[in-house]
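Page 47, continued from p. 46.
Same chain as before, 164 aa.
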Amino acid sequence: MSETLDASLRLLRAQAALVKRFDAALSGLHGVSLADFTLLLRLGQAPGGRLRRVDLAETLGLTASGVTRGLAPLERIGLVTRESDARDARVAYASLTATGRERLSDMLTTARQVADEVFAAPRWSPQDVALLSELTTRLGGTGLDGTRPDSRPGGSGRAGTPRP
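Result:
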């Protein structure tokens, strides 16, 4: 097997393991999936806690219909609401409710705990985590805030030197 295919398959397996871990924690404590959490997190980071649905789809790498399907159960449980634009009836917004903001805060605590467990020392150093972030960014990944590591305040663009 080529090294590139092996690396790709390892990334996919690692991604699947991370999704399972986050899903287990988030669903067990908060009744949401990792996909739900990322959608809520993106809304929580948006100005005023709301985004046009098409913009939400773009930032999450989903289709508009995928976002609509993802928002429906979150609307039913009162975490998100649908808003229309007063000036353009074709534009629809997704907006966090007050309950959604409160629950998102709790979900963030859980997600941070899972991430801290996944990248705990001594298996992972801060430099390892920064390097992984940089390398996955090369594959097109960004943080949920849409930034690349080199665009963060104080970021140098270099996460560290690869180990031999």
